[in-house]
Amino acid sequence: MVTSELENNRIQEAITLNNMSEQNRNNMQSQNVSHVGAYSSLYTISQIVGLLLIFSVFYWIINFRGGFGFTEAKIIFNWHPLLMTIGFIYLFANSILHYRTFRTLKKRDLKNHHAIIHGCVIVLVLLAGWASFASHIYSNPPIPNFYSLHSWMGIVTISMFLSQFVSGFVSFLFPGIAVQYKEAIMPYHIFFGVFNFILAIATSVLGFGEKLIFVLEQEYKNYPKEGMFVNFLGLLFIFYGGLVVFMVTKPEFKREPKPEDGVLLTGALE
Questions:
Q1: Distance (Å, rounded) from C-alpha 188 to C-alpha 145?
Q2: Residue 212: how many CA atoms within 13 Å on its side-chain side?
Q3: How far apart are CA 117 and CA 218, in angstroms?
């Protein structure tokens, strides 16, 4: 009789534990769905804001800075802020969000996409840098290079980005690299990637302010339309940067590892 009661108690405890485990799994799945939904909403907002940034820079150049071209120094320069915004802000942001956005894709594909987007950023940044150099050289009289804080921060930002690209390619795409090395380098790669993006935002905002001071001079303090427009544009850059950093650092938005990811790390699919 006692044995029967003990057996029934064990069965009841097992059923209770199974129910609790099932409930926990359901709760976790529900939370994951909720987090994915929240991320999707924020990602949509980030895309709208990012495209608005590009359009706003384009609008500013067309309506206040004389448009685009290759015949005058000041017109050549106008390519610089537009290409930097497309490459170093919008594409850079999408690159660091790529793993969380397309979470159902294979890790290898995501890494390849990440590298390709970074390659596009490098091309745009080089073209933007050429536009700045060319405009300074062809100005009459020529304008010196690398004397402002904006240019110094730009050099640091570009150098860090190129270092990240090379180290990331060698560490995560080059075949035969030990798993232990990849695991050790990953936290630093993520940290400096996010820091690099923050630096790009700060450098851009500083550049817009510097440009307004140069072209508006004393008129800037009289609240001209161009000055106010670019001031609000700078605030939009800061908002975009904060939104992207929040999305890429929130643990709940992290992509869940897949079984094939582990196989990839061991080099079995290299």
A1: 32
A2: 23
A3: 41
Which residues are CB-neighbours of 170 under 8 A, at least 6 positions away? Answer: 177
H-state helical runs in 149-178 = 149-168
Taking only the tens place, the pLDDT of each residue in 172-222 is 887 777 788 888 899 999 999 999 999 999 999 999 999 999 999 999 999
Smallest Cα–Cα separation from 166: which of 103, 219, 118?
A: 118
Asked whether residue 151 carries a pLDDT value surpassing 70, the answer given is yes
- % helix, strand, coil for the chain, step of 5: 85, 0, 15
The answer to whether 196 touches 154, Cβ cutoff 8 Å, is no
pLDDT for residue 256 is more than 70: yes
pLDDT at residue 22 greater than cutoff 70: no
> What are the distances in angstroms from CA 20 to CA 7, 13, 71, 125, 194?
20, 10, 73, 54, 39
Q: How far is CA 137 from the centre of its chain?
A: 32
The answer, yes or no, to whether residue 108 has pLDDT greater than 70, is yes
Quote the pLDDT of residue 236: 98
Question: Would you state the pLDDT for residue 8?
Answer: 56
Q: What percent of the chain has pLDDT over 70?
A: 84
Q: Which helix (H) or strand (E) holds 146?
A: none
Distance CA 132, CA 118 (A): 21
For residue 175, how many other CB atoms are within 10 A of its CB?
6
Nearest CA to 185 out of 200, 173, 197 is that of 173
What span, in angstroms and rounded, lies between the C-alpha atoms of 179 and 168?
A: 14
Alpha-carbon gap, residue 74 to 61, rounded angstroms: 11
